[in-house]
Design goal:
The complex is a heterodimer. Chain A is an alpha/beta fold. Chain A has 7 helices and 17 strands. The N and C termini of chain A lie far apart (about 50 Å). Chain B has one domain: HUPs (Rossmann fold, 3-Layer(aba) Sandwich), CATH 3.40.50. The chains are: A alpha/beta, B alpha/beta. The interface between A and B is large, with 96 and 80 residues.
């Protein structure tokens, strides 16, 4: 029988969306197979922080104020011990910036198989199918160690798991894991709370060099806010200084998995498409009917973004008003 | 200050990667230095310029590491370039293991103050080697950093957080992975490359690493091409997306 430990990432007293999703997905699989699930969360929590977590199990909560912004070194030390004490077989971590830093540290400490970015498949089989070489090759990886660590992003279908059961929370004493001379100290986080990461958005409107300038992104902001989504960018748009690097989508940017991705003035280079392998529906707006983005799109329109996007905004408004 | 930089190479064009009978065929690949590793080498060389007397050693643990990879590191300003020769490495754990062994062999008990690695290699994008290497060397790890300021004793680092930026105070020793934005790697001209060719490349042999923790079982080329449904007008496009239920979440 498997015993899953889910790392519940805390941010400003809440559990990150990715972690909530991971928890509920693991619960769903575990309910079917009768496996056990526990969770771990570090740092102070708001009273309603665990409200979206369903299913049975124990959540270990290290509530120390000092863990509000924990270093991955401390988290790694705590989890290594918890996994050993509890004899967990599988650890599941959301693929956020923090999760990606923590997972390899844990894999090394526990001699565990780290499987990241797996598309589809179940946790039980352990087989991990993932894209490599800019999304041009689909590889199947197999864990070879006893303990497995899954680093899960939004490549997987969102879980609609609900249950009358709720996990119960117990206090975890993290004091023994602090070392006095930790040489890494996270001083501050800026802009961390207001802007949601593009990696978590369900709808993304992205712009490329074809947008023609920084100012044109106002159009995309408008369309995105209408749809309740975020704005992304191609590398060219980032290199031009039109958008920050944190908005870049693609191989050297973020991998995203929205339900809807609208690419505006983006040519569709393999490196850009590498970040879209898990997007469910792709829409392309491009003036060049032969742009490669159309080969990766479900819906397309050939035209100038400066004309198409304002018109689309009006049409979308109309559709939404009718509902 | 002693600085070790770990470098690797990746295909220049991903489309040159082939799959034969479920196995990867890299025989037609032209290799370049992993772009993230260029930031690491550049940062090491800048620190050396800031703190004269520092020594930068570039290490490449890739069985097929070309001379060009090591020469590029030298041309950028590394003092020594070492090829860590091993059996084919099967996963990040083995790669980190041979690098950790090589660093211990080169530096002995006095481990380097700083080990720099690229955030991830662009071919497989596991991004695991830096953190694993840190664990094996018993050094703290942080990254991927987009800014680094040092006064020789203390470090001020910045790294991307989900939807924001984190500022970190740190001191040596430390393993750091490097992110785009940290610096702009210098271009290497004919003169630097000719000079680099005069320096000797070192080779050290790795022991047989422990078993891999993850194994590649099979691979296939992705030939997926979606069939795009074209709309003639923005109104038609909005209608199609609405019909497909894509505005559902907006309503909620
Ligand atoms: C190692 C490496 C890593 C990379 N990583 C990434 C990455 O992570 N993300 C990424 O995006 N790229 C990445 N790239 C770059 C990638 O190869 C492309 O250069 C880049 O994606 C192109 O961006 P673009 O589509 O915005 O610009 P372009 O290729 O210049 O395309 C602009 C498009 O806009 C269209 N257009 C122009 N004007 C209009 C208009 N008025 N209306 C409508 N359409 C118009 C054009 O027809 C064209 O298709 C990487 C490259 C390398 C070598």
């Amino acid at each position: 029988m498997a015993y899953y430990l889910v790392f519940l990432e805390q941010r400003d007293g809440f559990i990150s969306n990715v972690a909530v999703d991971v928890w509920n997905r693991v619960q769903q699989e575990a309910t079917q197979s009768g496996d056990k699930v526990s969770g771990f969360v570090a740092g102070p929590l708001k009273p309603t922080a665990l409200a979206d977590l369903y299913g049975n199990g124990t959540i270990y909560h290290a509530s120390d104020e000092a863990l509000a912004l924990p270093s991955s070194t401390v988290l790694c030390r705590i989890l290594t011990t918890l996994v050993a004490e509890e004899a967990c077989s599988d650890i599941v971590i959301g693929a956020t910036v923090t999760g990606k830093r923590l997972a390899p540290c844990l894999a090394e400490a526990l001699h565990a198989s780290l499987l990241g970015g797996c598309t589809g498949g179940s946790l039980q089989s352990g087989l991990c199918r993932r894209y490599i070489y800019s999304g041009l090759v689909l590889a199947a990886y197999q864990p070879a160690a006893k303990i497995r660590i899954f680093l899960q992003g939004r490549e997987q279908l969102r879980s609609a798991f609900m249950s009358p059961d709720r996990p119960h929370c117990v206090f975890f004493d993290a004091a023994p894991f602090f070392v006095p001379h930790d040489n890494l100290f996270i001083r501050s986080i800026t802009a961390g709370d207001s802007r949601r990461s593009i990696a978590e958005a369900n709808i993304i409107v992205a712009g490329g060099r074809g947008m023609g300038g920084k100012d044109q992104f106002v159009l995309l902001e408008e369309l995105a806010s209408l749809l309740g989504g975020g704005v992304g960018a191609s590398r060219s748009a980032v290199d031009e200084g039109w958008r920050p690097h944190s908005d870049q989508i693609g191989q050297t940017g973020k991998s995203v998995a929205p339900d809807l991705y609208i690419a505006c003035g983006i040519s569709g280079a393999v490196q850009h498409l590498a970040g879209l392998s898990s997007a469910r529906t792709v829409v392309a707006v491009n003036s060049d009917p032969h742009a490669p983005i159309f080969d990766a799109a479900d819906y397309g329109i050939v035209g100038d973004v400066r004309e198409v996007i304002p018109a689309l905004i009006e049409e979308v408004k109309e559709v939404l008003e009718k509902k | 200050m002693n600085i070790a930089v770990c470098i690797c190479q990746v295909p220049d064009l991903p489309s040159s990667v082939a799959v034969v009978d479920g196995a990867l065929d890299l025989s037609r690949v032209a290799w370049v230095m992993n772009p993230y590793d260029e930031y690491a080498v550049e940062e090491a060389v800048r620190l050396k310029e800031q703190f004269p007397g520092s020594v930068v050693i570039a290490l490449a643990a890739a069985p097929e590491a070309g001379k060009e990879l090591l020469q590029k590191a030298l041309a950028m300003g590394a003092d020594r370039a070492v090829e860590v020769r091993s059996l084919p490495l099967q996963d990040s754990f083995q790669a980190a293991w041979v690098l950790a062994e090589a660093i211990r062999n080169i530096y002995g008990k006095e481990l380097p103050e700083l080990v720099l690695c690229g955030r991830e290699s662009l071919d497989l994008q596991n991004g695991s080697v830096p953190a694993m290497l840190a664990g094996m060397l018993g050094m703290p790890f942080t990254g991927p950093v987009t800014a680094l300021r040092s006064d020789g004793e203390r470090l001020e680092l910045e790294r991307e957080a989900d939807g924001g930026m984190e500022c970190i105070d740190a001191c040596y020793p430390l393993v750091i992975s490097t992110e785009k934005g940290l610096n702009i790697p210098r271009k290497t001209g004919i003169r630097q490359i000719m000079e680099a060719r005069k320096k000797s490349l070192e080779i050290i042999s790795a022991s047989v690493p422990p078993d891999p923790l993850v194994r590649l079982r099979s691979a296939e080329l992705v030939l997926s091409r979606k069939s795009c449904c074209f709309a003639a007008t923005p109104a038609e496009l909005a209608g199609l997306l609405h019909q497909a239920g894509l505005f559902k979440t907006v309503q909620e």
